[in-house]
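step=encode ok
step=design start
structure_in=
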């Protein structure tokens, strides 16, 4: 492996390492799949664990990028050269790397190791994160098939006004994952969003119309803060998050990939 290090471990790594390592610790829990609509779904354990890890580690990933942008951490020795210049003034988009696949998981593991001390300085829950890093290393040593997992995009450059999210791709299981970061401190609009709890009308999604009656067929009421953070953020410069996410995942959906969405706290609500 080459040493590329901008800690996209937050996603690509946990996406694969989670189920493998935890299943081993649980006594080599047998994996099974269930076919539905032409797709083999993993068991609930294998489905849930990488999503839980992603929803937690997204916080650390965002902190690392923020520290690099502010200059409090020097990431020059560990970032891929083609990414280093771009991430400081725009969102992280690595979809063109590795022949259009993104940043591979097996190149991400050393990112975790190289930035372990940096994370220790900026991550308040370091004991938890450090434990996960050890599991990730063990998983990579045991399974060299991780070229099927990639980080695609990570949007945190405008975290003060818009929600933070990332997109991963799993070629092996044909799924694309959108992960949202949860609430942080008062330097962002996260808590303003949480507390904006009035109801706001939203056009009823097509998939729900047949199961609803009366006015609900045309409009449903949703949490105003969450709705505006995704669909109608008046402080957004450029596209709304919803449109950005659609653009990020559309190519994979057209290829038959399943969509997974995860997050913790505010991230879960979004």
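sequence_out=
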């Amino acid at each position: 492996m080459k040493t590329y290090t901008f800690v996209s471990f937050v996603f690509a790594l946990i996406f694969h390492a989670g189920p493998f390592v935890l299943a081993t610790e649980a006594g080599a829990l047998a994996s099974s799949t269930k076919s539905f609509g032409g797709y083999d779904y993993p068991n609930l354990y294998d489905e849930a664990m990488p999503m839980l890890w992603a929803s937690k580690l997204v916080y650390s990933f965002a902190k690392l990028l923020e520290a690099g942008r502010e200059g409090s951490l020097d990431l020059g020795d560990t970032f891929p050269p083609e990414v280093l210049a771009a991430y400081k003034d725009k969102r992280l988009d690595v979809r063109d790397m590795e022949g259009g696949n993104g940043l591979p998981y097996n190149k991400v593991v050393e990112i975790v190791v190289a930035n372990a001390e940096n994370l220790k300085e900026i991550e308040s829950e370091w004991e938890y994160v450090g434990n996960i890093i050890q599991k990730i290393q063990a998983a990579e040593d045991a399974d060299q098939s991780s070229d099927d997992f990639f980080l695609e995009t990570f949007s945190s450059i405008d975290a003060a006004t818009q929600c933070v999210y990332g997109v991963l791709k799993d070629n092996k299981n044909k799924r694309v994952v959108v992960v949202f970061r949860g609430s942080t401190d008062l330097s962002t609009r996260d808590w303003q969003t949480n507390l904006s709890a009035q109801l706001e009308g939203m056009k009823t999604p097509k998939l729900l119309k047949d199961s609803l009656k009366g006015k609900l067929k045309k409009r449903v009421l949703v949490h105003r803060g969450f709705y505006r953070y995704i669909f109608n953020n008046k402080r957004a410069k450029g596209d709304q998050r919803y449109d950005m996410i659609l653009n990020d995942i559309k190519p994979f959906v057209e290829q038959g990939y399943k969509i997974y969405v995860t997050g913790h706290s505010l991230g879960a609500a979004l």
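step=design ok
step=annotate ok -> Residues 1-31 have pLDDT under 50 and may be disordered.
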